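Hi R.,

Here's the chain you asked about this morning:
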Amino acid sequence: MKKIVQFLLLAVFPLAAAAQNGPALSAPAAQPTIFAPGIVSAGGHEFNATFTPDGNTLYFSRATINWAHITLMESKKGKDGT
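And here is the predicted structure, written out as tokens:
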């Protein structure tokens, strides 16, 4: 448990704080939508998503179904914009 708390304090929370100073996002969608199905939203526990200021990289957390392991994930925009 101590390692999880250290991870959150050292890795996740600073990323979230930095994202608050990033560019403004567009207006929210009228209806909730799944973000990047099969890439980010893979049907498990994905949370704490934040973009880099240029919007080309996304960092997020993914937990196993039983929350036994949490991994910090990175997803980068491809050269074709996807």
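One quick note: Residues 2-19 form the longest helix (18 residues).

Cheers,
M.
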